Structure formats: C-alpha cells, structure tokens
Automatic annotation (TrEMBL):
Its EC number is 1.-.-.-. The keyword Metal-binding does not apply. It comes from the Bacteria. InterPro entries: ADH-like_N (IPR013154), ER (IPR020843), GroES-like_sf (IPR011032), NAD(P)-bd_dom_sf (IPR036291), Quin_OxRdtase/zeta-crystal_CS (IPR002364), Zinc-ADH_QOR/CCCR (IPR051603). Gene3D superfamilies: Medium-chain alcohol dehydrogenases, catalytic domain (3.90.180.10), NAD(P)-binding Rossmann-like Domain (3.40.50.720). This is NADP-dependent oxidoreductase. Its main location: cytoplasm. Pfam families: ADH_N, ADH_zinc_N_2. Residues 10-295 form the Enoyl reductase (ER) domain. GO terms for molecular function: oxidoreductase activity. Keywords: Cytoplasm, NADP, Oxidoreductase, RNA-binding.
Length: 297
C-alpha cells in the first residue's frame, strides 16, 4: 500500500510517499480503507520533532491521526460495526491507503469522507479545552485563532451551550466568525484593546500559538483562566498547555450527534493528494485556515 512516512525529523521535505506493508486490526481495533485523512497541526509538530508527551515518535514514522473510510477488517472483541460501514475516527499513520483506528463512530448521513476526516481530533480538542478552561453559560471566553478547525468547533459548541464567544482571526475571516455566532475582531497591533471593547473576558483559549499568552493573561487577570494547545512555552507563564486527549469515543459520539442535528459544520478549506502531503503541512503551519485541510486518498 502507499503511505506517507518520514525517517528523520525536519521540514515538510522529509515526508516521503512509500510502499509499505498493510497494517492489521488488533484487539479492540478496526482497519479502514482510507478515503480521506485530516491534516492537524500536531502532525507537523510531530514531524518537526517537537517534544509532545502524548505522541512519542519512533523513526521511521507514519503521519496522521484522523481519517474517514470504509471498514474492511475488524479486530477481536469489537462489536457494533460491520465490514463495509463508513466510519470516521482516530488512529495512527492515517496518511495511507489503509489505517488502523482505535476510536471511531459511524459517519452521519449526508457527510462526505472529506468532511468527516476533519472532525475527530478537532472536536475532541474543542470539547477538552472548553472543559479545562471551565467556561460556562453567562461567561465570555476569548478564542485566539478562532477560524481554524478547533476554533470553528469551539465556537459552534459554545453557541450550542448558550455561551457567547469573542474570537480573533485574520481580516478575511471576520464574517466567517460572525456567522458562527462570535463577536469578532482582527489580529495585529491594538488587538487586545479591540477585544476589551467587545466586553469582559472571563477565560481565554490560545489555539494558534502566535505569541499572545502575556496578553491573554492580562485580559483574563489570571493565568489559570488561560489554556493553550499551541504554545509549548505557555507553562512558563503559569498557563496550562493542553496536549493529552480525553475520551475520543465520547467526542466522536458528540460530534456525530451535533452534525446530525445540523449544529456543527466545519468546512474543508482545501484538499490534497497523498503526493501533496508536504504542501498540506506547509499550508497548515502557515495558519490562517478557515475550517480544515484534508488529504484525499
């Protein structure tokens, strides 16, 4: 089978499309014929060799955590799924023609494989950081980097829970944020004052890692009210870095329910072929994404 792999840490150029042996489902796992794989910042962070305790890496390594496809192998002890079922979920080395998933859910009706591949890690992360920052109805969180996949999910989940969000993003994405129910403003000089002009900030989420931790702490008045998923130096300021996933099966079930009710939609900004994995990583690292990027197999 074809698979994207890297044998050394480095830039996008270390990625190679190789011929590899097919993986097989172990106990409690399924294998899918991959139709699409989600492109997440954690993918290029791992490729660069960043120290991420939740994702220890042995070289050579495959790439990718999220995927959608058709079940073609079922491991021992797995029930509730059959060969041929369309599913989306999280596993390992998903930039490939076949991948093993450890967590999955049936794809909601009307969702394409490309769309479905963009949800698993994104929704799990969104649910986790909302929980960790402790925001609740009647409070206003600030989301820095709100137009990407996780930000899009946070805004919609918060709206579903009756939580008003302030979101920052580039000028081109202001209407997008407002369409998701956020009070929106732009990055750049004076952004913190613009946020203050929109209202009180009770908590903050750093989703982009753009060097804004100091300002987020100032806006909230307490580093314990700030959570980052993108700045590995955040703990130096007393801010929690959130990098360990919670229950992916629970997140997938909630995602499927929200999607089925029309309460969650994350657009696919751009799709790439397996041969374009390096370009997908470069674009993801550059930021300014509206929604998700995916690899189509």
């Amino acid at each position: 089978m074809k698979k994207v792999s890297f044998a050394e840490f480095g830039g996008p150029d270390v990625l190679r499309l190789i011929d590899a042996e097919e993986p097989h489902a172990g106990p409690g796992e399924i294998r899918i014929s991959v139709r699409a794989a989600g492109v997440n910042p954690v993918d290029w962070r791992i490729r660069e060799g960043q120290v991420l305790g939740a994702h220890p890496t042995e070289l050579p390594s495959g790439v990718g955590l999220d995927a959608a496809g058709v079940v073609d192998e079922i491991g021992e002890g797995v029930g509730g799924v059959e060969i041929g079922d369309p599913v989306f979920g999280e596993g390992a080395s998903t930039y490939a023609e076949f991948a093993v998933l450890g967590a999955w859910a049936r794809m909601p009706e009307g969702l394409t494989f490309e769309e479905a591949a963009g949800y698993p890690s994104v929704v799990e992360t969104a649910l986790r950081v909302i929980r960790e920052v402790g925001v609740r109805t009647g409070q206003t969180p600030l989301v820095s980097g709100a137009s990407g996949g996780v930000g899009s999910a946070v805004l919609q989940i918060a709206r579903e829970r009756g939580i008003q969000v302030i979101g920052t993003a580039g000028a081109a994405n202001q209407d997008y944020l407002r369409g998701l129910g956020a009070l929106a403003t732009t990055y750049g000089e004076g952004w913190a004052e613009r946020v203050r002009g929109l209202g009180r900030v009770d908590a903050a989420l750093d989703l982009a890692g753009s060097g804004v931790i100091r300002e987020l702490v100032q806006l909230t008045g307490d580093p314990q009210k700030v959570v980052s998923i993108a700045d590995l130096d955040a703990p130096e300021s007393g801010v929690r870095f959130s990098g360990v996933a919670g229950s992916v099966p629970d997140a997938l079930a909630e995602a499927a329910a929200l999607i089925s009710r029309g309460r969650l939609h994350i657009p696919v900004e751009k799709s790439y072929a397996l041969t374009e994995a390096a370009a997908a990583h470069a674009d993801s690292r550059a930021g300014h994404t509206r929604g998700r990027r995916v690899i189509v197999v």
